[in-house]
Amino acid sequence: MNNNTADFFWKLRMLRKEPLLVVFIVILLALLTLFVIYPLFMIVRYSITSDGGALSLQTLFNVLKNRSYRTTFSNSIQLGVISAVLATIIGYIFAFTITRTEVPFKGFMKTMATIPIISPPFVLSLSIIFLFGRKGLITNGLLGITDFNVYGMHSLILVQVLSFFPVAYLTLSGILQAIDASVEDAALNLGASRWKIFWTVTFPLSLPGIFSALLLVFIQSLQDFSNPAVIGGGFPTLGVEAYRAITGMYDLRTGSILSIMLLIPSLIAFLLQKYWVSGKGFVTVTGKPSQNRTKIDEKHITIPLFTLCILFSAVIVLFYGTVIMGAFVKVWGIDYSLTLDHFRYVVSIGLRPLKNAILLAVIATPLTGLTGMAIAFLTVRKNFIGKKYMSLASLLTFALPGTVVGISFILAFNDRPFMLTGTALILVCVFIFRNLPVGIEGATSALMQIDPSIEEASVNMGASSFQTFFQVTLPLIKGAFFSGLVYSFVRAMTAVSAIIFLVSARWNVVTTRIFSLFEVSQYSDAAAYIVIMIVVILAAIYLLNFLVNRIAPDTNVKARKGFK
Amino acid sequence: MKNRIEEEIKAKSSSLKLIKLTKKFPSLDGSGEVTAVDGIDLDIKSGELTTLLGPSGCGKTTTLRMVAGFESITSGQLLLGGESIESVPPNKRDMAMMFQSYALFPHMTVFNNIRYGLKIQKLPEEEIKRRTNEIIELMQIRGMENRLPSKISGGQQQRVALARAVVIEPKVLLFDEPLSNLDAKLREYMRDELRSLQQRLGITSLYVTHDQAEAMAISDKVVLMNEGRIMQVGSPWELYNEPASMFVADFIGKSNFLECGICSVSGGGADVELLGRKFHLPRPGKGFSGMAPRFAAVARPESIKVLDSGKGDFDGVVRKAIFFGNYVEYAIQVGDRLLRVESYFPQETKFYKVEDKVGVSFNLESIRVLEDNRPVKG
């Protein structure tokens, strides 16, 4: 037996001394298999079988032969590529301006570059209709144009760039901050101009980040359902077509195949990002606080960058402002007098979908947060059979388009032994497993920065793995835990693509209700719903922040005695 | 007056035995194995402080981590008070460790750090309180209980880490280079304090360091390791005065190695030829058996005397002279050899300068003879 495996078995034996931990690992692995791998297997199997269950590629061929579906595929890819490139450029401008130059209003710019991430869906699409639609404030109200077609690819690109440039911004500002300041200062010291430094030092060093950002936005664009569904118009995309095939034509098999066509490029982009680009980084994080970098303050550089960022931020303000305004005016485009009618309407048709969404998100959020932390802790610090499987399965959910998840859950959980469709449980499961990855990634990088000897000290004092996790590790990665919680709450509240297949009459949620208001063109009522959602989300973030800071972990030993 | 906790700690202290302890790691390129610790035997008596000393990469830290249970044991046995503990998980080994970085929990106050292990054991609140308070008295860290570790000085952190370790009354206390993060002055002070505390508590300790002065200062027994093996075990006195090999003589203190021809061995003494002259060495040392192909004489820098020219056994020229206050360090060329010499009490003798011609004599009592295992020069 080679020593590697001997060491491995020793660690297994040590693990056996903590049966609770083993049980916990087994449960996690089983759940990941049931809610990530099994549905995926089901959707693939369903796509290549006939109704009788025999292997048949008939539907697959039909879809591939169908010209309009081929166009749909290339539409999705085209949209993804264009959005990715534009969003990355804008994200880079924001990241560079904020990390490298001396300009005012950085806080404002940072906020503008985060809002779209925590925003409810449909906001930007709704805005673009309010602004550029048939009765649009700009097209009709200001310019007097009546036949401008707001629906289609051009609007989608604008809306997706606005929605997803924050992803690029966050990736790139991380990379730009991590580049050792002295490298650029050295180039400056050697006599290079700012322009020269940018192209010979900064830009090449940030290339891995640029590729990462491109791929991440590409994935987001592909997976986007809500925007193409409401403003795609005559520009069909895969997610929307899969939805229409299933809800309009009751053709689950075609829907499955279309969603798999969506899955493949998304998965490829994810794998490229994960294993190729991330391995190419030049940046090494030393953990030492980097010295202050000299910020660029030459006016001919800062003024154009500043102007671009402010203009773009202004567009975001305009879009969000429009929706808020839309919720308070009588009839958009005709009567701009203020009213609360839309809110009254929303209350009258019932706040149940909103209550449902909040309830489900409240149940799912702590479960997602803790599961994410636990998986990160186990995969970083522990050794066990199935560890690779655990990290892969949990991160895979990031690459799965919501459409795929929704359809595969229908296929996997519509029958015995796992009959879950129509219940609240299936929605909670979707939220948990779809929102795991960011929590895991955050916790993993936070864990990497904690000296393992701090945890060893706890074990050495006699603490079990559980005690160590709850009393030492978790408090130390509180920050990552908090952002994981916020993220999973927001994602749960704002989810559309996966749950649109899974909601039922009893368990309807606010986003699907907004979607149906779109379908009957009740835009101002949708706006009212969205404003309420924004208030709920902001309140939830505030509350979570408060709660996480309140937990004083070391005084709580007694409450956790159950863990031994 | 003694604390109750001191008695309790003394009573819990236990012996530790390592039998053929071995650790193999997969080599970095994955092709084979690297033996980090190679069959170490060690017997640590209850209440004794044993130091694992050696250059970096010699396996001392790996040995300590195997004892603590943080590394798997490839083969061999570990006996704690006679009981085998190889398969006991690290949190049930009843040992406490002081980490190089102290590993204080940054989010807990000093008080909560110290009582952490007691809370884990779920002791009655009364006892936790008593023991924590007694250890705080003992360590003289009263007054900072409510501060966070980041708000106290390095020396205080050190005391808190020690308090946290001993308050659980471990059977064995492990130290992983606990002083290496302190500046030189504080290090010496803490070293002495650590030693006196260890003796007062009579707690069995295994201490890892690469600093030989530290090892000499605190140990009952020093284990000198190199490349995963034990080179020599003994008291600091034995290691310095009776080195078993050239490695030991070189690592502990400073040494001049001189080629040494053996003429005859008689009654514990040896007649040898050094630098072309014959001498009688009354105590060639325990490392000397007279049974090796080649021999080297070990002359410590302080056992060579510098005299006026013509007055010594050899004539030489000063090539380097550095005044350190309490002694002068010379490099003196004798023939084609450079001898390293430390001359103490420079105020009472003479301070020779570079290029001065001098005489050199050996203090024959303290010269030892060892097997010469250096490669033969071309």
Main attributes?
heterodimer, A: 564 residues, mainly alpha, two-stranded antiparallel ribbon, 25 helices, 1% strand, globular, B: 378 residues, 20 strands, elongated
Which descriptor suits the 3D outline of chain B?
Answer: elongated
Q: How many helices of chain B does DSSP assign? A: 9
Share of β-strand residues of chain A: under 5%
Distance between the termini of chain B: 67 Å
Structural class of chain A: mainly alpha
What order do the strands of the largest sheet of chain A run in, or round the barrel if closed? 1-2
Widest sheet, order of strands of chain B: 6-7-8-3-9-10
Q: Could you say which structural class the secondary elements and strand pairing of chain B correspond to?
A: alpha+beta
The helix-strand sequence of chain B is: HEEEHEEEHHHEHEHEEHHEEEEEEEEEE
Tell me the major beta sheet of chain A: 2 strands, antiparallel
Major interchain interface with per-chain residue totals: A-B, 34 and 39 residues
